[in-house]
Specification:
The structure is a homodimer. Chain A has 11 helices and 13 strands.
């Protein structure tokens, strides 16, 4: 049993996910030759893509995990909708699927109308930002099955997004990646929805039970810093894909960080990458790492460390990609290149400036 | 505040759902004129239907609610997959959408590999039964945010299903229903996934904390009786819709029971129904009602009372519908007819044989 120090059993998580996926995969035959047939099994997929006649529909599900607790602690529920849509919309666009519709399920212990409204208004705003519509929702009152911090309404929140592969285009997989491709990093705003179990453990160890009220900087509490809403990349990536720029692969940086999520799209062609120009981790992220005595190597797997999305593309595409990113208001930069040697090499921008080498994907 | 005696605040539930839907509806404009546009707003819809080119895709989300506790109590997790797929696949087919793919999200406190495998194997079996494929899944370890009965793994389980309206067909709404149409009832097997908060409250009041171990009959414990897996109707209804038989409307009997779910598809044309031949409630359902001193009128809103699905159809369609149901191995019978007088009239098959009249939908 490999604990990641936050109490989450990583080995068990991986083996359960693998087992669940093997049962799911056996069920693919049920749609073989019918609408809803799995269109292609993509190397390092972030979603599944199904064929309905000529239409390719992608689908993925995820939740905001224990980031919900940060809203309970700060009393601010208005921005979690951005986190929820980011998790699913950015998984779709990573495979070239343009997000269109989402449904959400809100599990609560008891209902608080004002809190539910704050969540739903935030979801609406994030839907506007990402050009999706919310076409389904369920609020389940589950009483004591749901718990959390403090005495206000406790909740868990998850969503499913669907989208489409534009006519005449193909899904994005890593099958076109090749040595010499550049890797372009998109800056994140904060923790997004990953690595909260560890961050919370470190901060409560450092500041005690009410760590969220402690100041991180003059005007920002730790609670507010951790709540920083996710930037949703899908509107910008959609524009890039619409512009006929060649893209070899896209990695959404979720659990496992840059090494595992870039690794998962490169490993099938036994390629690697050298990343010497990633963004700096956010100050509050680096401070959390310091407080927890977390090594740089581990930190890059636990958290996004400043980079929320990576695009792999032929070198001559990078200028156009960066131009569109800038027009859309996103901060992006070339951060490295694809190598023929497997493994992801990162020049740390965290506490040290060590060269970190990741040869085995945690996924 | 109207409590339903199980501690669930019905008024608050309805007002939160309404509010959430009003925010969701505002977001529909984000896909206006683009793929993923809401294709039509159906009267009394059980799902949403979106247009991707010529393809109509339906989507819906739901969970098994507190039925999860019955698996925790009995230690049998093998059949909940049927309950999970029933909730979403039967909501799709109620609007003429053939279910094709589902994703599921399993929230757990800590992982138990054997229990997760039992759930996923059951989901696979239910997917085979209902001819869908499981094309996505997420297992979230949420620690103390998830709770339940006993000391084994606690969990909440929800799913999203998508499907398609077959080429050349239209979604099913109630807009074709008319006076004189027959109503055909499909027999249920048990509680499906609705009304468990009240059933559990009654049974723990009657038998104490370990009510699930008490015998309901010689060989069946109360736990086993309540766990009875849902019958999934979508394979049979799909066959009926494929056979070009005219169908005026379909009601999936979930929360709100027969009166609210039939009511929601009839109210837009200000029609009503007289149901004098519904199925008998299951013995364990009737016994639960007796133990809780629940009136027949209330019981028909809390539970399905023996009927899991209703089809409204022109009288001359009923013979063919019943024939296909029989061939598919489902038990169905004509249970009443559509009237020009609004309201749903039910001749009770529960404790009394009273005539019950429902004039106001709870939805």
């Amino acid at each position: 049993m490999t604990l990641n120090n936050s109490g989450i059993d990583l080995d068990s998580g991986h083996s359960c996910s693998k087992m669940a996926f093997s049962w799911a995969k056996k069920s693919f035959k049920n749609r073989s030759g019918f609408p809803g047939e799995v269109a292609l099994e993509i190397d390092g997929a972030f979603c599944n893509i199904m064929k309905f006649g000529e239409t390719l529909i992608g689908m993925t599900s995820d939740g905001i995990g224990t980031k919900a607790e940060i809203a309970e602690r700060t009393g601010d529920h208005s921005t979690l909708g951005y986190d929820l849509i980011a998790m699913v919309a950015d998984d779709l666009i990573a495979n070239g699927v343009v997000p269109a519709n989402i449904t959400n399920i809100l599990d609560v212990d008891v209902l608080d109308h004002a809190i539910v409204e704050s969540l739903m208004k935030g979801l609406y705003e994030a839907a506007n930002f990402s050009k999706v519509s919310v076409t389904g929702g369920e609020i389940a009152e589950l009483g004591a099955r749901i718990s959390g911090w403090g005495s206000s309404m406790h909740f868990n929140w998850c969503a499913t997004a669907i989208g489409y592969v534009p006519k005449g285009r193909k899904p994005i997989s890593a099958s076109n990646a090749k040595e010499g491709d550049v890797v372009i990093a998109f800056k994140s705003r904060g923790f997004r929805s990953n690595g909260f179990s560890m961050a919370r453990k470190i901060l409560s160890g450092a500041f005690g039970e009410n760590w969220h009220s402690e100041n991180f900087s003059k005007n920002v509490t730790w609670g507010k810093a951790l709540l920083t809403p996710s930037l949703i990349y899908s509107p910008c990536i959609t524009k890039i894909l619409e512009s006929d720029i060649r893209v070899s692969g896209i990695a959404h940086i979720t659990g496992g960080g840059v090494p595992d999520n870039l690794g998962r799209i490169l490993k099938y062609k036994a390629l690697g990458a050298e990343l010497d120009n990633l963004f700096e981790p956010h100050d509050f992220m680096k401070k959390t790492q310091e407080l927890g005595n977390v090594s740089d190597e581990k930190a890059y797997r636990l958290w996004n460390m400043g980079t929320g999305m990576l695009i792999v593309a032929p070198a001559d595409s990078s200028g156009e990609i960066l131009k569109i990113a800038e027009i859309c208001g996103y901060i992006a930069q070339v951060c490295g290149r694809v190598t023929s040697v497997p493994g992801v090499r990162i020049k740390s921008k965290a506490i040290s400036s060590d060269d970190l080498l990741y040869t085995r994907s945690g996924k």
